[in-house]
Design brief:
The chain is mainly α. Helix content is 53%, strand content 11%.
């Protein structure tokens, strides 16, 4: 069940997020992938050896969510980059954001404020298919604050490695660059894949 690192070299050449930053970012992502696979292997070995009640097993199990979420959130992040930053105002996603937040600008104000918070983590726009709701939320590290059952639509990395090479401590400049490079078609595809057939037809 080994995971394989995806090639995201297509997002190189962005304006505002340098290739140097991205190349370092790719290496970090590959590290999360490698550690995820190692932990699954080690946990299976310990299960085979009857060590599932040991402190080492418990510690690895807790660590697994950090590595796995670090891997998966980076995939979402890379995949929603290198667009033109413009969301079609006629799209179902735009209309849903406006319905939820009263305006697209108010949604962006909220999402940006979350991304600007002190500390390392992620700003994530989720869709809750059960309640048909949009939710902006913060995830500390990778695994803390993830909302069960909700589909990540837009994922923004705000760990220091995402912006310090390009902007130092000026995180707001990175936030602007991120919005400039969003691939909204990828976000829309995630949204369409999350809504029910009945809601998709209505949209």
């Amino acid at each position: 069940m080994a995971y394989e690192a995806q090639d995201y070299s297509r997002i190189l050449g962005m304006d505002g997020i340098s290739d140097n930053t991205l190349q370092n970012h790719f290496k970090l992502y590959q590290g999360y992938m490698k550690n995820t696979n190692l932990m699954f292997d080690r946990l299976n070995e310990m299960l085979d050896d009857g060590k599932e009640h040991s402190p080492d097993f418990a510690e690895l199990q807790r660590r697994l969510s950090f590595e796995f979420c670090g891997m998966r959130l980076h995939e979402y992040y890379f995949e929603n980059l290198k667009g033109n930053g413009k969301l079609d105002r006629g799209s179902a996603l735009y209309r849903k954001i406006e319905e939820q937040f009263n305006s697209f600008e108010r949604w962006q104000q909220d999402f940006t404020a979350i991304g600007a918070m002190r500390g390392v983590g992620w700003a994530i726009l989720y869709y809750d298919p059960r309640a048909d709701q949009m939710v902006n939320a913060w995830s500390t590290l990778h695994q803390d604050g993830i909302l069960p059952g909700l589909q990540p639509l837009l994922v923004m990395d705000v760990w220091e490695h995402a912006f310090m090479l390009d902007y130092g401590l000026e995180r707001p400049k990175y936030l602007e660059a991120f919005f400039h490079n969003i691939d909204w078609s990828a976000v829309e595809k995630r949204f369409q894949g999350s809504i029910s057939e009945e809601r998709r037809k209505a949209a």
